[in-house]
Amino acid sequence: MSASMQLYAVFGQPIAHSLSPVIHNEAFRSQGIAANYFAVECSPSQLQDKLRAFEVLGGCGVNLTRPLKQTVLPLLAAKSEWVDSALAANILRRDGEEWVGDNTDCEALYRLLQGLKSGLGDALVLGCGGVARATAAVLQRHGYRVVGAARRPALCGWADEAIVWDDRLKPAPWQVVVNATPLGQDDEGQEERWPTPEPGGIAVDWVYRPRATRFLQEAQAHQAIVIDGLTLLVEQAALGWRTWFGMEAPRQVMWKAVGAWQ
């Protein structure tokens, strides 16, 4: 590999399903950027050592997926406002000898929600990990009251209210429902029933394989507006280019790269 080749990666566990290498490598080629992006299987206990190894290789930037978005916080020299709000980071930039963290999950969702109904009641967030935290931070900034549903509700300290997992299906006038869990993803568990927002409300699914999840199909059948995981993935990847390169990303190229999953 050329000494001038820039290295980028996504760390997570599991990670084989990630489309981030497909998106970024195609975008690098389209812009003539000498860079390579790859996936790194990494558990929380391995994160510090693997980040150090990546530094030695000359790593310039990292994306983080589950279950690392909170684990990384003590390793950051500086954090963005979104990281402080969500208590989770999904993108790192090498600044000299240190890592700086940001959360493009937050900004992607914030942008996609702009122009839709805002501040109109309760929002239900399924899950309690880094994506759930990011989602809650965005929804609260838009003016929603956030209810978190998890098998361990004590982990939903970021929510305005926490409920047990089984209560997610109780009838309620949700204005927004967000799946911030892996449920519904290929090779993951499948739910037979999903909570749905009120007609005209908003359903968001962070799962992107498949794009048209059962949750979103049920939400559309209830006349909800839907934001799918593939749209979120491409948007946060594009925003990552501003963090790494200070420039606009080639969004059309990124969408073309994931064409098989549309």
In words, what does this structure look like?
- This protein has 262 residues and is α/β, with parallel strands linked by helices.
- The protein folds into two domains: 127 residues, Leucine Dehydrogenase, chain A, domain 1 (Rossmann fold, 3-Layer(aba) Sandwich), CATH 3.40.50.10860; 124 residues, Rossmann fold, CATH 3.40.50.720.
- The protein contains eight helices and twelve strands.
- The strands form two sheets. The protein has a six-stranded mixed sheet with strand order 2-1-3-5-6-4, with helices on both faces. The chain has a six-stranded parallel sheet with strand order 9-8-7-10-11-12.
- The chain is globular.
- It starts with 5 loop residues before the first strand and ends in a 5-residue tail after the last helix.
Short description:
Helices cover 32% and strands 22% of the residues.
The backbone outline, from C-alpha atoms, is globular
Secondary structure category: alpha/beta
Give average pLDDT, whole number: 94
Give the second-level CATH assignment, the architecture of the largest domain.
Answer: 3-Layer(aba) Sandwich
Major sheet size, sense and barrel closure = 6 strands, mixed
Strand content: 15-25%
Spatially, the strands of the biggest sheet line up as: 2-1-3-5-6-4
Instruction: Count up the domains.
Output: 2
